[in-house]
Amino acid sequence: MEAVAVDGIRLNAIDANAVRGTVDVQLEFDDYKSLIAYLERLNDGEPTQRWSLVTAEASGQRKQAAIRSNWR
Prior knowledge:
Elements: E1 9-17, E2 22-29, H1 32-43, E3 51-59, E4 62-70
Antiparallel strand pairs: 1-2, 2-4, 3-4
């Protein structure tokens, strides 16, 4: 995640759960194009798609999303 930078993406919270083998990330995004670009860059080079979009919502100017990675 540190090596992947996309303009318009701001991480708010990261929750890693070793027992479940997941990482949940809460973030803010400027537009859906940057959100999709961020997910594509996170998954780039992986044998299977590890990161997926859980939720995305826009309320006025504020846009928030949750993404999840499964490592099992």
